[in-house]
Design brief:
The complex is a heterodimer of chains A (about 325) and B (about 260). The two termini of chain A are about 35 Å apart. In chain A, strand 12 and strand 13 form a beta hairpin. Chain A contains eleven helices and 14 strands. In chain A, helix 4 packs across helix 5 and helix 4 packs parallel to helix 6. Chain A is globular. Chain A has two domains: about 220 residues, Rossmann fold (3-Layer(aba) Sandwich), CATH 3.40.50.300; about 60 residues, Alpha-Beta Plaits. In chain A, the strands form three sheets. A six-stranded mixed β-sheet of chain A has the order 6-7-8-3-9-10, sandwiched between helices. Chain B has about 260 residues and is mainly α. Chain B is built from ten helices and no strands. The longest helix of chain B has about 35 residues. The chains are: A alpha/beta (about 325), B mainly alpha (about 260). Chains A and B meet through helix 3, helix 4, helix 5 and helix 7 of A and helix 1, helix 2 and helix 4 of B.
Chain lengths: ~325, ~260
């Protein structure tokens, strides 16, 4: 596909508003994803990041605003949305009665591809994600992670111009997770726009070209991972693994605003305070309050916490 | 990564509509439904056939010498139960379970038109219902030596009866958002059909008000058209029955398609 033809398929969301009663799930969201781009939608649980996706694919109707893919108005023409977009939902696919290969091939046919192409591509995807040993296994006997990968293959065997992936790596083991990211990048290289919905900040940092942070239904930041981290460039991330059950230790004045998730205590400190931070953390280990600590460059997660700091951290994002 | 690029399937250049696409989608969706029910379809068909045979043979337990007219009435009513049970009762329960499992949304995002999806499900209901009809009639014939006379009108009678039952179930499954409520209504319908719809017994045995009420529902009319196609009786109610069933079929299909396409 030529570059001009590719650029004609840009995905645009303009001033999208969605109300459920008096609650604004989306409040004026505007974004643009170019063909070939892997674009992340990040946000805490309940932030409203799945709602634009459901409006794009025709499950919900916007209260106001526009969603277009190329020249197609996806709100006015949901049939076009379903043909031109591929969707991997957060829930597992209904494949208990299907054999693994059969589920992928039938999805390819339903998406309109020719059988010979579908067979070749299915073989490639099964090989690429190392699913061969379960090729003829019924879905009911597959693990959650393998089912997730089958769902990815079903959604992308004959991809749309926009591929929407909602938490694609949930339940997937670390080895195949890497293979899955390769396939997601391959979709971008093929010219598809990839919209990746996730709360897994660390994975998103490595995988996306650009990302948007959504909190309380609003888009609070957008850019490349590097640009979002720019404000934290002179800072470092101090992470302390506390002994289970201990009280959260008080930090000295240089310690910023720490966040505790489980037994992880994380804060950002100025580079100049790094020696003090090391001394303090080592002291916690010596006194039996902590088991280990780490000090490194600020990550996207720090920017995420800074930008969504008014959102309560519920500790459920433990997949990171 | 490069090795996985050889057979990439490119995104569609345009939105494809029209009859050719619909025919291909219909075939794919029938395969999808049959495969997704493969664990259950044999069991479902067997249970349907067994319940039909149970009704046919069970009636003989009520009489020391069963009158042929009673055996004929029950045996020609059982096919109606066979034809509507999957679409009308199992269908909504299936949709309810998909909602509970979270797969309902995915199925709604498949690039298949609502009408084609409904047509494919109707086909699956026919496929699962017709063998049970045949088994029930064969057993009835062997047990009672009935004066059955199967006319060509059996084709529209079977097609329309199954269509109406399927679309009613489809509308119920898709229009009611709460899976638990759907399950409860489906259970209630089984009770109503067996107990208070004149399918397996003559309408004359009902109180007048209940018989009048039944005129507005499709079930007694389904029994009229199927029974007329299986016997030599020239029931004058047949044309009206086709009209009532047809109106219910169209109304239920419209409600089902509206529910499927609804975007809250």
């Amino acid at each position: 596909m030529s570059k001009t033809a590719r650029d004609g398929w840009a995905f645009r969301v303009d001033n999208l508003v969605k109300h459920f009663g008096t609650v604004a799930a989306n409040d004026g969201i505007t974004l643009r994803v170019l063909p070939g781009e892997v674009y992340g939608l990040l946000g805490p649980n309940g932030a409203g990041k799945s709602t634009p996706v459901k409006q794009t694919i025709g499950l919900l109707k916007p209260t106001s605003g526009r969603i277009t893919l190329g020249t197609h108005d996806l709100v006015a023409d949901p049939d076009a949305a379903r043909q031109l977009c591929s969707y991997l939902p957060q829930a597992q696919m209904p494949i208990d009665s299907f054999r693994l290969r059969e589920a992928i091939e039938l999805s390819g046919r339903i998406r309109g591809a020719e059988m010979a192409q579908v067979r070749r591509r299915t073989t490639e995807l099964i090989d690429a994600l190392e699913l061969g040993e379960w090729s003829r296994t019924l879905g009911a006997r597959l693990s959650g992670g393998v089912k997730r990968l089958v769902g990815f293959c079903m959604a992308t065997i004959s991809p749309g111009h926009l591929v929407i992936l909602d938490e694609p790596t949930n339940d997937v083991d670390p080895l195949r997770r890497r293979l899955l990211w390769e396939q997601i990048r391959a979709l971008g290289a093929q010219g598809c726009s990839v919209l990746l919905v996730t709360h897994n900040v660390l994975e998103a940092e490595k995988a996306v070209d650009r990302l948007a942070l959504i909190a309380s239904g609003k888009l609070v930041a957008e850019g490349t991972p590097s640009s979002l981290k720019a404000a934290d460039r002179a800072e470092m991330r101090l992470q302390v693994m506390l002994v289970p059950g201990v009280e959260t230790p008080a930090l000295p004045a240089w310690g910023g605003s720490p966040v505790r998730v489980g037994n992880h205590l994380v804060t950002t400190i100025a580079e100049a305070d790094a020696p003090s931070g090391i001394t303090w953390a080592a002291g916690l280990i010596d006194s039996g309050v902590a088991e280990e600590y780490g000090l490194g460059a600020a990550s996207l997660e720090d920017a995420y916490i800074r930008l969504t700091s008014d959102i309560p951290v519920d500790g459920s994002d433990g997949e990171q | 990564m490069a090795s996985s690029d050889a057979a990439l399937i490119l995104p569609p250049g345009t939105v494809e509509r029209g009859l050719r696409r619909s025919v291909r989608d219909y075939g794919s969706m029938v395969r999808w439904h049959l495969a997704s029910l493969r664990i259950w379809l044999m069991m479902l068909g067997s249970v349907q056939a067994l319940s039909g045979v149970g009704f046919v043979l069970g009636i003989s337990l009520f009489y020391r010498n069963i009158p042929t007219s009673a055996a004929l009435f029950v045996s020609t009513g059982v096919p109606v139960i066979n034809l509507i049970m999957v679409g009308f009762v199992f269908g909504p329960q299936l949709v309810a379970s998909q909602r509970t499992a979270g797969s309902y949304e995915f199925l709604r995002t498949l690039p298949i038109s609502r009408a084609v999806t409904a047509a494919a499900w109707y086909t699956v209901c026919l496929i699962s219902g017709i063998p049970a009809v045949v088994v029930s009639l064969v057993v009835a014939q062997l047990r009672y030596d009935l004066p059955l006379h199967i006319s060509l009108m059996i084709v529209p009678a079977v097609l329309l009866t199954c269509l109406t039952g399927t679309m009613l179930g489809y509308a119920l499954g898709h229009a009611v958002g709460n899976p638990m409520v759907t399950q409860l209504i489906a259970q209630l319908l089984v009770f109503v059909i067996f107990g208070f719809a004149p399918i397996l017994y003559p309408i004359q045995q009902m109180p007048g008000w209940l018989a009048d009420l039944n005129w507005w529902f499709p079930f007694r009319h389904m029994a009229v058209v199927v029974r007329a196609a299986l016997t030599t009786s020239a029931d004058p109610a047949v044309p009206t029955a086709y009209v009532v069933i047809g109106v219910w079929a169209v109304g239920a299909a419209a409600l089902a398609l509206w529910s499927l396409g609804r975007r809250p």
